[in-house]
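For the sake of transparency, this paper describes our internal protein records without simplification. The remainder of this section carries one protein's record, kept here as part of the documentation:
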Amino acid sequence: MADEADRGRYLTRQDLEAVIQRAAELETETGGAVPELSERDVLRIAGEVGLSEASVRRALAEHQAGGDLLVERGWITRLCGSGLVETKRQVLRPADEVRLELESHFQANESLRLVRRTSSASLWEPDRGIVASVMRGLDVFGRGYQLAKNSQAVELDVVPLSDESCQVSLTTDLGSQRAGWFWGLGVGAGVPLAALASVVIVEVSELPNLLAVLSPGILGVTVSFARAGYRRSVEKMRLTLDGLLDRIEHDEPLEPPRPAWRDLLK
């Protein structure tokens, strides 16, 4: 009878997620060992509950993407916005081929050097060598070096979805640009404000109260201008990353076309 009653019950997808999550919580509370599952086990279990293999592989790829090589912490993120810019794309090309092409591009055309590598992710920073710095400064070949000039680090994640497709994620750290905008405008507004405060406190005793009222407004305007300027930097970097993934997706050369010699002299 119990078996017949169990066979008569059906769970929606939301019910299934809630039951599995609660069962895992109960298992943890009772001290039971939670087994580690291979990707093959996950695919088998997902198939038993009616999930397609393609959807599960994509979910696994999204879970694995982002090797946590670039991590943000601290109050500055809440005040000024995230310093990380990320874009991702599903590409119908083999993962190894895409990874090799992007890493070669980073070294040859973006003046980046490898810092760390995990199973699916790699971390790159601008090459600080004298020759590389001079090449970026002169930029005689018109490469731009957008990633090396405008970001502190670049994280590349390439996760296979199948033998002929992968998910590519690019993340850049714009922390130095963010700090430049907020410190620059902060100093620009703070120095005149401090000078004015020193004058009025000495000469006019009634004005410090007015200054105390105006200061939050001045600070708010400064932060707003800094946010707007930094937002433009984020949009420009996102456009650069999307363009790179566009060329990867369509199997086009990653190196941008070099400008004519007349353009280099402008």
Remarks:
- DSSP finds eleven helices and five strands in the chain.
